[in-house]
Amino acid sequence: AAPYVLVGESFTLVTDLPWWRALRYSKLLDRFEGVFHELVGDVIPRRSSVNLVWLCAKADDFIKLSTDAEFPMTEHHEGAYLRWHGYSIINATRADEVGRLNKAKDNLARTLYHECVHRLVESGICGRMPQRSAWASYAETNGWIVEAIAIVFENLEIKEKGFALASLEAQRKWSIEKMR
Fold first, then answer.
1. In this model, does residue 140 exceed pLDDT 60?
2. Where does residue 103 fall: left (phi above 0), alpha (psi -120 to 50 degrees), or beta otherwise?
3. Closest CA to 88 of 115, 58, 114
4. How far, in Å, are 53, 65, 126, 142 from residue 47 at the CA level?
5. What backbone torsions phi and psi does residue 11 show, to the nearest 5 degrees?
6. Is 178 exposed, middle or buried (0-12, 13-18, 19+ CB in 10 A)?
């Protein structure tokens, strides 16, 4: 069967997940972009280009897609942001498996947020350059900054109304306690 292509306000999701899951994650991604920019403010400008995510239900499809993109991955990888192509790829099978092992509430959402942060933060590092030239100026040293931000956003929980970012709140409380 052909994959679903869900075009949202902020992200386009291409997936062969069951419809109910495809719709759920498409809606989460659209809310994610708004929450992300609410938290980081104007430090990271909004992109005007497409934010594309390939969400593969089967590990074999993920492996094939990554290999076709000349970035071969295995069934043990959860996802990657392929900045030179301008999209993210996600292995739902592995993300769900890791979630079960770690007793995570929704590890697939965590993986999506992590990979999508790479896309959104890149614009802050590269300024307002067009996507076609932005990745060329993306220095390796900046990659670790982006990775740290992506890890923080893994703990984002988007609720029916509002959101919580446990890792950020814990860090803030720890910092305040250290200053006392």
1. no
2. left
3. 115
4. 15, 25, 11, 18
5. -130, 150
6. exposed
Per the CB < 8 A criterion, the answer to whether 95 and 107 are in contact is yes
Q: Which amino acid is at 151?
A: I
Alpha-helical (H) ranges within the chain are: 19-40, 59-68, 92-102, 107-126, 131-134, 140-153, 166-179
Query: Residues 47-102: pLDDT tens digits?
Result: 667 789 999 999 999 999 999 999 999 999 999 998 778 889 999 999 999 999 98
In degrees rounded to 5, what are phi and psi of residue 73?
Answer: -125, 170
| 3-state SS, residue 70 | coil
Q: Which two tokens stand for residue 111?
A: 């993986």
Q: Tell me the pairing of strands 52-56 and 87-91.
A: parallel
| Six token digits for residue 73 | 């991955």
**Paired strand residues for 5:** 14
Two structure tokens written together for 38:
């609410």
End-to-end CA distance of the chain: 59
Integer Cα distance of 66 and 21 in angstroms? 22
What order do you get walking across the sheet with 12-15 strand by strand? Answer: 4-7, 12-15, 52-56, 87-91, 79-82
Q: What pTM did the predictor assign?
A: 0.85
